[in-house]
Structure formats: C-alpha cells, structure tokens
Description:
Layout: H1 25-33, H2 63-74, E1 81-84, H3 91-96, E2 104-108, H4 116-122, H5 129-136, E3 142-146, E4 149-152, H6 158-162, E5 163-165, H7 167-171, E6 177-179, H8 181-184, E7 189-193, H9 200-212, E8 214-219, E9 222-227, E10 231-236, H10 245-248, E11 253-256, H11 263-278, H12 280-286, H13 288-304, H14 312-324, H15 331-346, H16 354-365, H17 371-399
Parallel strand pairs: 1-10, 1-11, 4-7, 7-10
Antiparallel strand pairs: 2-3, 5-6, 8-9
Helix pairs in contact: 11-12, 14-15, 14-16, 15-16
Amino acid sequence: MSDETPVLEEKAGSEAEAVTTVRSLRELIERVSGKGQWKLTREADSGLAESLPFPFLALVGQTEMKLALLLAVINPAVGGVLLLGPRGTGKTTAIRSLVDLLPETPRSLCFYGCMPEDIEVGGLDAVCPDCARKYGQGEPLAAMDKVRLVELPLNARLEDVVGGLDERAAVQERVRLQRGILALADRNLLHVDEVNLLADEVVDAILDAAAQGTYSVRRGPLTATYRARFGLIGSMNPEEGRLRPQIMDRFGLRVVVRGLSDVNERMEAYRRVQAYLTMPRRVVLAYAPETQLAQAELQVARDMLPQVVIPEEVSRLGLAMVHRLKIDSLRAEITLFEGARAYAALDNRLEVSAEDLRDVAPMALRLRRSTFMEKYFEDQGAEEAEISGIIDQAIKENGK
C-alpha cells in the first residue's frame, strides 16, 4: 500500500462535478463520501483505543442484575444499585455495557445551571437574570444530552472525588477551585467498582453527595457548592471485605450475582465472549439494531415515568411487606415504590400493579434486616419494661 495522503481523483476529460448537482439523498451520500474515488492508503497507528463495550443484550442470563440496572437508568430515585458477587460473574461488564443504552437528559445551558423546573417551583427569582430574560423571550434554558457513565478509579483520592485547587491556575499565581468527579457525574451514572475497598472518607463523600444532590468544597478561603445529582452503581466481591452497614443502607437495589449454573448458558456465554474478543466490532454491529430499539424504549420509559402512579391498595401491600420483614430504614419503601414505578414504565404502563411489587421487592428489601439491631431492640424492650415497672411501683407506693 502507498503512504500518500488520500486525494480525490478527477474523472478523465472533465472537472469533478459539483456536489449540488444530485438527484437523491443516496447520490449525495455517495458523492460526498467519495465512494469508489478514494485511493487506499495506510495511515499511521495513533495508538488510541476505541471504546466498544460488550453489548448489553448479549449478556447471557443474570436476569435480575440486568433488570436492576435498567430500573436505575429509568428512575434515579431508586437510590442506585449494588451488585455483590464473586469475581468473573459479569458485574463490571454489565455496568459498562449500559453505555449504548443510556437515554438523554436535559442539561442546563447556563453557567449557573439554571433549569426550567427551577422557574416552575420558585418563579423567575429562582434563576439568574440572564435565564429569566431567556425564559421571557421563549428561549430554551436547557438542551437534551445523552447520559454518560462516569467511572471512579479505585485509587481515587478524596481531592479527586470532590475537587480541589486547580494546579494549572496555581502556576499562574492564581487560586481557583477545580471540580471533582462527583460534579462531573451530575445528571449521569457514577460507577464505583470494588466499593468495599475504597477509603471510608471517599465513600462517605460519595454517599452524602448522592443523598443530598449537592456537596460543598472548602479549600482555604475558597468555598464552592456543586450539583451532584447522579445515579450510583456499585459493585463488590464479598470475599475481599464487608461493606459498612450505613453504606449498604444508602444503596437502593441490591443484587446478589451468582455464576451461571446452567451448562448450556455457560457455553453460550463463552462463545459470545470469544467472538467479542476476536471480532469486537462485528459482535457490536450484530446487536446494533436491537440495541438502538432498547435505547429508544428506555427513553420512552424515562419520559413517561412522572405520570406513573401507585394505587392505594398496592402501596398498602408494599408497606405490609416492609412491616412483616421488620425493616426499620425508610429507604426500603422509597426504593420499593420507585423501583415498581420504573418497572411499570418499562412495561409501558401508567399504573403500578401488585406483580410489579413482587418482582422488585427482592432487590429492594434484601440485606436490609440486621440481626444485631433485632437483638438490640429486644434487649432494649426488656429494659424499657423493667424501667416502666419500677416507675409504676414507685408512683403507687408514693401515692400511699
């Protein structure tokens, strides 16, 4: 092959035709792309890696894990997802394969992050003067943009996560704060792999930001508050260490990922992985039509989610589940109901059914009970009964 720069060859005896003289879109595409007119050349290898995630629809089995991830994409209010399981069960692969399915979300066009819903809630005084003017003139305050998957490195420091002083500005003898990973994850998905191995201060910062939707950074005289409204997806291997109970409680859906038990499924998984490792682009293209359709369906589900309601009898059923399991955390109801609403939207329905609760309940309610707290409350109840008895006896004797 030649190392020349590609050039468009003119037809013999005439100049190249103008692009505007076309009779159809197909002809225009062929003309602009130079189909059949470019010399084959060999370009230098840039060394850059192309991102071709394993197709989500090519994952074999693991129905509950895939459902939990889709519910978290549709409704961030479920509180995120925690995947627990041994190595090699596809947890990280499944999370990264969400990239091609992620829907679009409105993003502010303003430096201060003003959104149309701010005006709906607080009026024109809730946005900056420039956005108030735009709103009055009918100009958009936000534009649709695709949700992104932001990954937190395992060796991330607290300063990397929340932000710190901008080193480039310091070189020029200026002091400026630089946004951290949490701020970059705003309105996106944040993937935290091996969450049980992160430093406690890093995990606390992530969970506080996820719960509040904002976080503050103070570095010397500088203080800033950043938006951090993201969906949290964590994964861990229980063999490598336990997760603190207060951290576990912050995750909405919990999925215990086990290895495939069916021999045929394991063989099919091997074939697909082998094909992907050998010809990744071909495998991705093979699932491209279904992936595009799934992405469109997720967008529809996310858009219709605000209209999904929970009937009174269904909500009472959910509360009865939580009560009988003796779960104290109120996050159980929040995750159960929000997950059921997302499940109904995924099925293109505007009303949650009892079957929706049945399918979502295991993911929303598992790993929420504490044997320690049950024993603690039992002992505390005995003490309370003893105290009440002594007080009643003292009152009775004093009354005499």
